[in-house]
Amino acid sequence: MINNTNAKTHRGRRVLIAGGGIAGLSLARALKDAGHNPLVIERSREWPTTDTAHYLPVNALRALDQLGLGEAVTAAAHPISRQRVTGARGRTLVDLPVSSIWGNGGQSVAIRRNALHELLQAATPDVAVRRGTTIAARLRNGAIKLSDGSIEQCDVLVGADGADSVVRTAGIGGAAPQHTSRWCWRFIAEGWSGEEDTWHARLAPGRSLVTVPLGDGAVFCYADIASSNGRPPGDWRNYFDEFGTSVTDLLTQGGHAYATPITEVDQPYAFLGRTVLIGDAAHAMSPSMGQGVALAVEDALVLTETLNSLPVDEALPAYEQRRAPRIAWVRAQAHRRAWEQRRAPRIAWVRAQAHRRAYEPAGTGASYA
Across all residues in the chain, what is the average pLDDT? Predict the structure, then answer.
């Protein structure tokens, strides 16, 4: 949890958080612990559910632990102790223990997205949440009119509403997400008989397929395909026929996979008018580094720390200044991996040392700067 022992800490700020996903609820928990007064609004009347999952590397668990959720998440998740990368025909490119990347100071896990969100809901019973509510208008002097007719006076407005953030695109005239010429599919399959402790990426020109065991015979499957002309034609599963029968048999369960284009948001995320963005609303990118949850929770922690220690008009730029180098580095690694995969997967991931180096800054320090 956030340590709030500094006598000079600013407290009691009213923070309106648009978006009740992982980023929004993480921020609400951190702010409440620090003595602030968050209000979460979520446009969906019921909490959204998806048949997907998250791989949480060590730095994600470290951030969740600082929120007070580390033990609960670890108990609900499945441990992952190895990472393997192979070519389409099965040639091993990388095979190493997770501890060789992160050291022995923590573990990596996989967890269903719904389970993680339920833990965040359970951790925020003292936070005001209004579902089925959106921003109707921004008024003067920090007042915001909501779709339920109420008017909220807030010190800070936070956009935690995802890559298609309305706070970013409509509220402050920010950029729409940019397409990366890749589409992805995600689903959870049952009856998994493969290794129970291994994150496994299979690479081929313009395609990749990742399996992450979830325990009890379940496995999270993630596939992406490069396509410069919109969604690839036909059944996406046919693009993975050369990966062998173990893969094609698994993909028979992917007929209703969650399909989306991979988009990217790359712009400033602290603004005049006391508005700030976190999570995918601020910096959506390819999920290839497995850092989405980690970056969102880290954003929540750093934003809370800066709001604690500085006036609002200084805190928001300070938050962006602290986070920008880390976000830029993860984005650069995601771009590098996409470039390698498009051109020659036989040169991608070839050396285990290069694979380790891709995660080094993500694993350093507890300040998330």
Answer: 89
